C-alpha cells in the first residue's frame, strides 16, 4: 500500500509546570501516530528545565488512505523517581499537517501549539516542525513505476523495490563432482537371495547338521 514519509522534529517547549518543587525537572516527549487501533509510538531523550530543548528527529510512514483519519499526538512527560507524570499533550490531525505543509516546498514547517492538560488548562508552549515527503516508487526500465518480472524467472524484490537476481536451483553435489548411479545389487535367480537348494557362486555349502541318536560308526576297541 502506498505511503508518504512524515518527518517530525521535536524542537522545544517553554513555560512548563514543574511538579517537583525541589529537584530540577527532566522532560521527554512521547510521539504517537494514531489511526483507529493502529498506534506507532516513539519517544525523545530527556531534557532538563522548564524550557527543555530536544531537536529530536522522528520519521513516520503514513498510508495515503489513512491521512484523513490519523492523528499525531505529543505527550510531554516529567521523569520522577516514583513514576513519570504527564505534563500535558498536543493533538493534531494529520490532514491539518498536510494542508499547512503543502505550500512550503521541501523545507520543514515550524509550528507552535499550547500544551493542554487533561482538564484543558494551558501548561506551556510546544514547538515542532514537520514535512510531508512525496511518495517514492521504483522505476522500471521502460519508464514505468514498478519493476516488470521476466516470464518464467523467479525474482525477489529487495528493500529498495528493485528486483534481485533470479534464484538458482539448489544442488547437493559439490562443484567438480559427477553424480554416478549406484551399482545394481547382485542378482541370484532374479531375486536378492539365492533360490532354495542352490549355492551362490564362489561360496561353499554349509555342512549338514549333526544327526541325533547313537553313532554306530564309532571305532571299536581292541
From TrEMBL:
Tell me which residues make up the C2 domain: 1-109
The record's section on InterPro entries has: C2_dom, C2_domain_sf, C2_SRC2/BAP
Residue ranges under compositional bias (Polar residues)?
A: 213-222
Q: Which PROSITE patterns match?
A: C2
Checking CDD domains in the record gives:
C2_SRC2_like
Highest taxon in the source lineage: Eukaryota
- Skewed-composition ranges (Pro residues): 193-211
- Annotated region (Disordered) at 193-222
Q: Please give the Pfam families that the UniProt record associates with this protein.
A: C2 (PF00168)
GO biological process entries: defense response
Q: What is this protein called?
A: C2 domain-containing protein
Amino acid at each position: 500500500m502506498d505511503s508518504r514519509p512524515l518527518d517530525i522534529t521535536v524542537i522545544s517547549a517553554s513555560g512548563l509546570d514543574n511538579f517537583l518543587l525541589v529537584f530540577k525537572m527532566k522532560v521527554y516527549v512521547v510521539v504517537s501516530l494514531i489511526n483507529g487501533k493502529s498506534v506507532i509510538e516513539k519517544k525523545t531523550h530527556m531534557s532538563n528545565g522548564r524550557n527543555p530543548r530536544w531537536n529530536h528527529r522522528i520519521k513516520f510512514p503514513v498510508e495515503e488512505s489513512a491521512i484523513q483519519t490519523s492523528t499525531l499526538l505529543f505527550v510531554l512527560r516529567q521523569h520522577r523517581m516514583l513514576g513519570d507524570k504527564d505534563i500535558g499533550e498536543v493533538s493534531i490531525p494529520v490532514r491539518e499537517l498536510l494542508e499547512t505543509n503543502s505550500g512550503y516546498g521541501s523545507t520543514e514547517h515550524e509550528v507552535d501549539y499550547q500544551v493542554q492538560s487533561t482538564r484543558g488548562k494551558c501548561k506551556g508552549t510546544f514547538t515542532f516542525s514537520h514535512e510531508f515527503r512525496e511518495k517514492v516508487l521504483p522505476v522500471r526500465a521502460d519508464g514505468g513505476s514498478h519493476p516488470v518480472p521476466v516470464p518464467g524467472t523467479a525474482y525477489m524484490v529487495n528493500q529498495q523495490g528493485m528486483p534481485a537476481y533470479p534464484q538458482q536451483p539448489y544442488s547437493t553435489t559439490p562443484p567438480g563432482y559427477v553424480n554416478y548411479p549406484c551399482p545394481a545389487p547382485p542378482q541370484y535367480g532374479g531375486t536378492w537371495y539365492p533360490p532354495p537348494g542352490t549355492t551362490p557362486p564362489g561360496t561353499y555349502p554349509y555342512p549338514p547338521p549333526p544327526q541325533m541318536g547313537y553313532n554306530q560308526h564309532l571305532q571299536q576297541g581292541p
